[in-house]
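Take one record.
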Amino acid sequence: MKNVKVNLAELKKVEPINFGDKEISILTGLIPRIEKAESFYYCLSVENTAPSFLTTIRSDISSLKADVRIMIAYISKKKDSLQNHSEISSLTMEALRGYEDIYLQLHSNLQIKVEEKELSFSEANQIAMKYSDSEIRNKVFHSLNETLKNQSNLFASVYNQMIGLRQKSMMLTGLGDSFEQSLKDNGLSRESFHTMWSVVDENLPQLTKFIEKKAQESNKDRLTWHELMASAQNFSYNILFSDAAVEITDALEKIDPKISRFVVEAISNGWVDAQPRESKPRGGICIPFLTDKQSRITLYYDESFDSAITLAHELGHAWHYLQLNNTPSLSFLEDKFEMTVAETSSIFFETAYVDVIIQRTNDLALKKSLLGWKIARSLNYLMSIRGAFLFEKRFHEARAVSPLSADEIEALSQQSQKEAYGGSLNSYEPYVWMKYDQFYQIDVPFYNYPYTFGFLLSLGMLELAKDQAYFSTAFSRFLRETGTSPVEQLVLKHFGIDLSNPSFWQKSLDRLISDIELYASL
């Protein structure tokens, strides 16, 4: 990083308008070096590293990226008054980063009192969602929400300020609104986006049959959101890491032997850190080192089915990174790496793995439990994430008029969830807008819907994968060209699929509806 700073200081002595091949070559070479430094930062973030040290590194990396982006903007000459626009964007990002840090500090300082114990947010949330004893699970869930309710005014203030600042910046720079920019960044047209959601809406009566069935099994008229999500954890299916690695390898072998060999290589070479350490967040992260043609995966592997799925998911990201055409470029990966494509590869891997596990199981009770887990996870992509999107979209619209109180934000969240779940639940998740840090990520507004897109696209691709020879080549080329064209064009080019046509989305949903019908029959 010191070396990069020296190079940047030299470039700053040259007026961008006078940049020649030499300067552009140096600038292009700095981008992968900054990205590599950022990858090391993410590796450090899951170790026992002092938070103050991490904050300093992150701030330095952000500053380097901002300097490079300003130079690129000057060279590109994309807009009039470019200097003012660049300065506004840079100042906005710096201010947003400050608000994001405040949110993270508020989150980390939460103390949830349960009888004589005090739990952190992550500890309380883990128990509330996954603890085997339902009485303890419910008690902690309610204590967590009560704590969040008491802190809601502070979180509401931060969220209002963040969104308001982003909206003002986009207005001043003439970039339009955040949602339009998000669609553009994800390579989606408004037509295809609305087609996807309209097909989901049309199928809600079929999809909610699973929720109705789960309520019947619990001798209830309707379930709460918490009961639905916690019910997916009420079965024991422990998997050793070594067994999960073999099962994932076997599942992908049927689709593409090259992918299977890659999984063996990644695990054999020690690219996966699966040790459950307290310094790690729950879940997983895939960290790319593109110039080395490698990735590093870190996950909290606790031998649960959920952690095995996370392993498959992150290996999907690593395979995607390996496919990328790593040619020198005047842009950072995050500026051209559409989340819609990123989440397709990862969800494709996890779904292929789950399907094979369910097919191989002869124990009907276990098969039903695994199938129920898969369906609940699938509905999370279609309903929970839909609720998050509806909330975020409506909050942006309301915030353009005036700030919202904590109670107004919560009412908007509950209303959005109710619509997304087709009114099938008795109550919904309180304070989701405080629990999920995705809402507060400064770089990616509307973080949510690409997961739904990736889920439905991956279901459709699993059908195409039955023709192994054709699919293997098409899938690799599709991933390799990420960011070179909008995802809609890439899907049409490599698979002949028109995403504005409802029939594709319906075929994907038919696979899920078939699972729901099978579950009801077991």
Notes: Residues 115 and 375 are 35 Å apart (CA to CA). The chain has three domains: 1-78, 87-173, 190-237+339-521. The first helix runs from residue 2 to 12. The mean pLDDT is 89.
